[in-house]
User: Fold this.
Amino acid sequence: MKNKKSQDFSQLQYIQQIYYSIGVAYLMALIPEIDKRKTKMNARKVLAQYRKWERIAGKSSIDIKSPLISDMPRTLGVSVNKSQDGIVERVDAEINRDAILRALAALSWRSRQILSMTYCEPEKASVYELSVVMGYSEIAIKKYRAVALMEFAEAYKHGQLLIRK
Assistant:
């Protein structure tokens, strides 16, 4: 009788293991793999634009001029209202900058620190400088930066930077 129970139990374990492996395979088919190299490259490209967006968004609005009024017909493709173009460019820069800042805010402290010191500070920090400030080895900083770039790609505009295989 005892042997029968142990045999039933082992069969139950075997069936559970089969269901588990089928379930994992099914989930893996539903969730596509992420191409880490291309995803990190996308994250670097977006983060590299941060200083540019910060400069454009930070322009003073004093240089805004009133629109030109003229009775001359407008030519196609040429913008007469340069001040309006400047405002649009500045608002666009603010939107892009704020999206980067929101994604950085969603990261862990270490990831946020590494990425902001590398991409968002006026002076780009080297791996050595990061290791001195944060108290990690240079190799650890490189590993943490790779993790931080993946976290940023997931957080930026709801995963817009993720590249699937």
Q: What stands out?
A: The radius of gyration is 26 Å. The chain is about 70% helix and 0% strand.
